[in-house]
Amino acid sequence: MLLDEHPATLIHHTIGNFNIYPDKVAIGRINESLSTLQQARDLRIRESENALRKLSRNLQTLASQHNQTIASHNSTDHASQIVELDTQKFRIAKAASDLEIEGERLEQELDSLKSCLQQLDLQGVEGDDAMKAKREAEDPTLLKLKVYRCLGIDADPNPTGSYNKAIIRNAQRRDVHVVNIDTKFSRFFYADYLWQAL
């Protein structure tokens, strides 16, 4: 016989001398890790499939909307809308330009009126000295013209500014006389003539 001991006893002792418990624990841990990894992988696959289905639905919705938009799009209507919008834009720009020009003109006119008002404020109610002198010089003539108008006589000035024509209106007779005043007749003559015409 080759062996002194029984083979089963030898195998049993050999197995006993090999410490396989740590290997079993390691294999168990590996199996648990594989199981956990498989579960995580399955969960990730399910989430990816759900996301893929959602994206597919969104794609189909957008594709149908795109097809409807393309089907409803009319290039001639689009071109006419662009032309109309361009026309409106041009009108608005022209109106804005006109308003800006008008605003500048009104601003200049306002500045001019402000300066004129300032000059009038400086002159006062009576006006400046030149205006007072002119008014005082014209006062006798104006007074005479007012008296004539009260009597129904209007003095008509010629282009040089002198009065050589009188228009006599008689309301009672409903009559109008035009008298040309000439220097060859005296003032008394014209006064008598005018008084008789009244």
List the helices and strands and how they pair.
Layout: H1 7-17, H2 21-72, H3 75-123, H4 129-151, E1 153-157, E2 163-170, E3 175-180, H5 187-197
What's the short story on this structure?
This protein is mainly α and 198 residues long.
Low-confidence sequence ranges: none
The rounded Rg comes to 60 Å
Order of helices and strands: HHHHEEEH
* Helix/sheet category: mainly alpha
Q: What is the β-strand count?
A: 3
What is the count of helical runs? 5
Q: What shape does the CA trace take?
A: rod-shaped
Give the helix level as a range of percent. over 70%
Distance between the termini: 185 Å
Question: How much of the sequence is in beta strands?
Answer: 5-15%
Largest sheet data? 3 strands, antiparallel
Mean pLDDT: 81
Strand order of the largest sheet: 1-2-3
Polypeptide structure, described:
With about 200 residues, the chain is mainly alpha-helical. It has five helices and three strands; from the N terminus they run ααααβββα. The protein has helices at about 5-15, 20-70, 75-125, 130-150, 185-195; strands spanning about 155, 165-170, 175-180. It has a three-stranded antiparallel sheet with strand order 1-2-3. The longest helix has about 50 residues, at about 20-70.
